[in-house]
Amino acid sequence: MIKKVLILVSILVIIIAGALVYFKKQTGKKSIQPKQSTQSTQELRIQRDILAIRKFAESSDLAVQYDSDSKSSYDEKISVGIYFAGADQYEVDSRDGRIIQFGTRSLPVGSENEKIVDNSSKYTSKELEGMAREFIAKKAPNVNLETLNLSYDNKGANYFFKWEDRTSKTSEGYPFIQVGFSQGGTLLNYINAL
Q1: pTM of the full predicted structure?
Q2: What's the total number of domains in the chain?
Q3: Residue 31 domain-assigned?
Q4: Which residues sit opposite 127 in a β-bridge?
Q5: What pLDDT, on the 0 to 100 scale, is given for residue 76?
Q6: What are the Cα distances from residue 89, in Å, to 13, 31, 103?
Q7: What is the domain range of residue 145?
Q8: pLDDT, greater one: 132 or 32
Q9: Hey, which residues does 84 pair with through a beta bridge?
Q10: pLDDT at 17 over 60
Q11: Second label for 100, Cα 20 to 30 Å away, from 16, 38, 173, 177?
């Protein structure tokens, strides 16, 4: 009789232990449902754009603030994000994170974020053109300036070098890429509307 009780108790212990293991596995199982995205598409785009701006500015800790969505100043068919970083404004292509425009934003005179521009006569127009070419080679390496038409304009101590693609035309004019520098070498603007 004792032998039968021991067998019965052993079977009960095995059943209880099996039930405990089964229950623990069931409550500890992770859901196999598809993961819900915790970030919206817009939030992911903004993060991508901020990384692109930091890379463009060569400053991994640059404080960048999203401002709004808009249409590109250079092609109304392109949606862009507008961002601020200190005294600068960026227009970033919403489709791929490409910097379309960089330049000084409008700020009140005397603002703490006001951009300091070196207007000394440090560089000649030829040297500034070389700097513009180097800048484009670095920031837009797929652009072949030799196939584009160069024009430049100076406004006082500021020089703007613009290369146009005269083989095509948009409602806004010829597609172009432009870089502006002060005579002292301060980067004033960059536009890639190609």
Answers
A1: 0.76
A2: 1
A3: no
A4: none
A5: 87
A6: 72, 44, 6
A7: 59-192
A8: 132
A9: 65, 89
A10: no
A11: 38
